[in-house]
Amino acid sequence: MTKWFAVICVTLNYAATHHVTVDKGDTFNRILKQHKVSSTSIHQINADVNRLNILSTLNPDDQIDLLTCDKSHQLLSATIQTHGKQYVLNKAQGHYQTHPIIIDGNIKIVSISSNDTSLDPLKTRVLRAHSSLFPNTTGMITAALKNQEIISLKVTGTKIAYAFLHKPKSGFPVYVSTNKDIIASAISLTPVNYSRISSPFNPERLHPISKKVMPHKGVDLAAPINTPIWAAADGVVSHRSSDTGYGNMLIIKHNSGVHTYYGHMNKFHNDIQVGQKVNAFETIGYVGSTGHSTGPHLHFEARLHDTPHDPLSFSSKLTTKIDKRFVDLNYYF
Questions:
Q1: What are the backbone dihedrals phi and psi of residue 319, each rounded to the nearest 5 degrees, phi first?
Q2: d(Cα 309, Cα 303) in Å, to the nearest integer?
Q3: Residue-wise pLDDT tens digits, 203-231
Q4: Are 166 and 177 in contact (CB under 8 A)?
Q5: Residue 201, pLDDT above cutoff 80
Q6: With contact defined as beta carbons under 8 Å apart, do 304 and 260 qualify?
Q7: How far from the centroid of its chain's Cα atoms is residue 252's Cα?
Q8: How confident is the model at residue 3 (pLDDT cuts 50, 70, 90)?
Q9: Distance between CA 40 and CA 48 in Å, rounded?
């Protein structure tokens, strides 16, 4: 029988976690049945057993964490500590697979519920990344950060979803799935929690103050004064000013000829300066109505080689192509 040195069932309306210490004679199948994992999951694992050699070599005192769906008892994932190493078991491309978990002292792991309202800067950035990558999912979010950059993210709800940062030799960085398919470009298209679009991208807009036809080179995202604004992607601040019609404005230079503009801010965050490196989803300023403005909003522009594009569809201009043979999926959790 399996010894339950610790059994933790954290009910979050969608999933439960069980921690198990392997006893002599235990098999992975037996452990799954003892924890009432669905027969569907067990049959699928048995069908994929040739891919899962690590499961047939369990030793006494190995540690296993099972993550199951709270209602269907489907196995979402498992973390296995055996032979002095750690592995994650999950489902990808229709099959269960195991991957070694990388131990790296330079990696910081951040975990938070999607419903959390934390003011911690790192957790806030993780929540923003989650909203950008998986806007229609809820659950527990776990992210791995290296040098302040979110390099992988996992969401555990009724299903489990992964995103891995990939930087191709040419083209803009992207996040990919366990199938190595592109989920999204590594850029936030609306870098503020806004209430409405008060003015869309429009090359022939009639300016609300001057009443002259003046191109609107970005999108206006209306929000209350001092709503935080974040960097759309990793980059370096290339411009800061307060003496134009854009009021308090920043320009950030990114990879592959991309620049983003942030106008009419009430104030800059922590006196941010030109030449300063910023990370994606990091707070850079706060919504205001400075300069030529009729109300509090963020004027956001996205430019590729100095040509303005509609920020809401800007990712379609970033024609990154990847060769799946050179995509590494690094599991840190």
A1: -85, 65
A2: 6
A3: 877 766 677 777 889 999 999 999 999 99
A4: no
A5: yes
A6: no
A7: 20
A8: very low
A9: 13
